[in-house]
Design goal:
Elements (H helix, E strand, L loop, with lengths): L4 E7 L9 H13 L3 E2 L5 H11 L3 E7 L4 E6 L5 E7 H4 L2 H18 L3 E6 L18 E2 L2 E4 L1 H4 L4 H5 L5 E4 L5 E4 L12 H11 L3 E2 L4
Parallel strand pairs: 7-11
Antiparallel strand pairs: 1-5, 1-6, 2-3, 3-4, 4-5, 6-8, 8-10, 9-10
Helix pairs in contact: 1-2, 1-4
């Protein structure tokens, strides 16, 4: 059920990326190197191709191994990859850490254009993946920025957010992790989100989900 699930979402510049089993296998392999195992008996090299063939509205892969993780794509929106874990996992600091680390592994393997979370699909509608020379409009708990999105901001702008974690990503991008535990006590960290939105020139921010 969606209300028990939280997501980090990745948007890609090309619609063919997530439809290509060979490309997505780079992400699967990277997760396996981190200790994740695909559920079921399908060989990893065939898993995404089979999921695409079986899918009607969506295709997905489920993993286990220290963190329950699911990757899914809505087939009429093939530029967006949903990374999901159960909310009770993300409510724990170590679970939130494991989730964003897994998302970082995926980014480094697949090189999306933009990533954001945490979100909950039962409580909010998402805009379709943006196209062209757009800029981010909202600061989330986790903000994955490609080199294209990072360049006008500069990594020093991200590092100016007090208490935030900034990690270098493959492809020249960066991850802005606003607070260490976004689903914890929100009131003390509200000013951090406000500062982050102001520094990044975003019209709004979302704190937790």
């Amino acid at each position: 059920m969606c209300y028990l699930t939280v997501y980090i979402v990745f948007d890609f510049p090309e619609s063919v990326t997530l439809k290509d089993p060979a490309i997505l296998m780079a992400g699967v392999t990277a997760l396996q190197d981190d200790g994740f195992l695909l559920e079921g008996e399908t060989p990893a090299a065939e898993a995404w191709g089979l999921a695409l063939r079986r899918g009607t509205r969506s295709a997905y892969l489920a993993f286990k191994g220290g963190l329950d993780l699911t990757l899914s794509v809505v087939l009429n929106q093939p530029r967006r990859l949903y990374c999901a874990t159960p909310r009770p996992v993300a409510l724990k600091p170590e679970g939130a850490r494991a989730f964003v680390d897994a998302a970082q592994t995926l980014w480094n393997a697949l090189l999306p254009d933009y990533g954001f979370g945490l979100i909950s699909l039962d409580t909010q509608m998402l805009d379709a993946p943006a196209m062209g020379d757009y800029r981010i409009k909202t600061v989330y708990d986790y903000n994955f920025l490609s080199e294209r999105l990072l360049k006008p901001l500069g990594v020093q702008t991200l590092k100016a957010v007090p208490g935030a974690r900034v990690a270098v990503l493959a492809g020249g991008g960066a991850l802005l992790e606003v607070v260490p535990h976004p689903l914890g006590d929100r009131k003390p960290t509200l000013p951090t989100y406000q500062t982050a939105a102001a520094l990044l020139g975003a019209a709004s921010f979302q704190q937790g989900c």
